[in-house]
Every structure is written in structure tokens, then in C-alpha cells.
Amino acid sequence: MKKYQLPTLEDKMNIHNTIHHRSKGLCNHIDMMRIVGNTIKKYGVTKIPVFDYNVKILQNTKVKINGEFVDIPVISIEGTQMSDQCPVCKRETETGYLLTQEENFDKDYDIVVVNCLECGCMYSTKGDNHRKYALAAKEC
Ligand SMILES: [Zn+2]
Q1: Can you name the residues that pair with 94 across neighbouring β-strands?
Q2: How many angstroms separate the alpha carbon of residue 119 from the centre of ligand 1?
Q3: Residue 12 in contact with residue 120, Cβ under 8 Å?
């Protein structure tokens, strides 16, 4: 049986801080996916637990950087608690958008993963369904 090494605290912190930087706009989305993806790949798996959520590589995508196509892992964050406010701060603080977890074609909201800019907690919440608004605007 193949034994997998558990992710170290250092690697978990690195992933968590990278995602937090991303939500604060301190690094771009591609850098975040690349750093998180490379850390996951170190363990020979596609998904690792980080504190109270998981990060997962969904697939690779080709992105043009400096005129060259580079493979970038598409990262998903799963297992985050659903909440209208930060589950740690218990108030509606400013959040940074990270990614869309679930697209709803029949509702006026999507489920998005956000990062509390106060404490760094990551959670899922209802976000505006821009696709629906865009479609409605087209129909006018
Ligand atoms: Zn918070």
C-alpha cells in the first residue's frame, strides 16, 4: 500500500497565506493557483486538507504568460462553511472574493467562496449571479 505523507503545518500555512493574499489583491489569481497547485503536487495527490477546508486541483489549463503557454492548475476550495457573515468574527466584515463554488442557473445568486479580510477565515456565501444579470441585460 502506498503511504502518503500528510501535509506539513508549514505547507498548510503557505497555502492559507497565499489564498489570503489573493483575496486582499496582493497576488494575482494565476500566482495563487500555481503556488497552491505546486504545494498539493508535492504530495503526489490532487487534494489536501488545510485547517477546516480542502484545496483541490480540478484540472490543468494553459495560460499565456510572457508569450508562452504554461500549464496552470485550476484550484477549487471545498468544505467551507455556508454563512451570511464571517463564522469567526460574527459580523459582516469586508471580504475578498476567491472563486465560485456553485453556479445557479435558476436562482439570482451563486455560491461563492470568500475570505474575511479581518481574520482570514474562509467561508461560502451567496454572491450575485452576474451571469443571470448579464443575460437579463441582453434581453432588454
Ligand atoms: Zn472574520
Answers
A1: none
A2: 4
A3: no
CA 123 to ligand 1 centroid distance, Å: 9
Predicted local distance difference test score (pLDDT) of residue 57: 96
CA 125 to ligand 1 centroid distance, Å: 13
Q: Please give the pLDDT value at position 6.
A: 86
Ligand 1 centre distance from Cα of residue 135 (Å): 33
> Is the pTM for the entire model greater than 0.70?
yes
Residues with CB under 5 A from ligand 1 (ion): 86, 88-89, 116, 118-119, 121
Output the CA torsion sign for 16, 123, 49, 32. Answer: negative
By the 10 Å C-beta count (0-12 exposed, 13-18 middle, 19+ buried), 125 is classed as buried
Provide the pLDDT for residue 65: 87
Which of the residues in the chain have pLDDT under 70?
Answer: 1-2, 130-140
